[in-house]
Fold this sequence. Notes:
By secondary structure, the protein is of the alpha+beta class. It has helices at about 10-25, 50-70, 110-130; strands at about 30-35, 40-45, 80-85, 85-95, 95-105.
Amino acid sequence: MTMPYTEDAPEERIRQELRSLRDRVVGVYGSMVATSDGFLVAHDIPRLEPTRIAALVATTLGLARQATETTGRGRFRESVARGSEGYLAVFAAGDSAVIAVIGTNELNIGMLHYQTRDLIKRISDHLTRFDGGWRTTTLPHGYFGTSGDPFTGR
């Protein structure tokens, strides 16, 4: 059964979380949540193409997971890259999702790490709402516990 889009839809709750992160952490330009396979779930990124970034962030997640496991550092949690114009931080949100934060050179990395601890938990909770009959066209078949047809649940 397909549910109509409402303000309480998981994507909107996630979008609100991402907007709030920008308000709480100095230097956050934008952020997004994507599946580990690179499908966009929600974003708060102005003037950039979020679907392309989602695919690149999923690749970053995959490489970082392999690197931490191969070097015996355990399960991947986060990766921060710094460029000449700012930062890209990638955080694992469970096994099936990734949170990416794009920051300016003024990004307060310490505050970002502090704020993302609880953010990851809240976003993971919102993602579980994709279970139990709720479906979206932004997620491919089989994500977050779906089975059968992603629109009918059969």
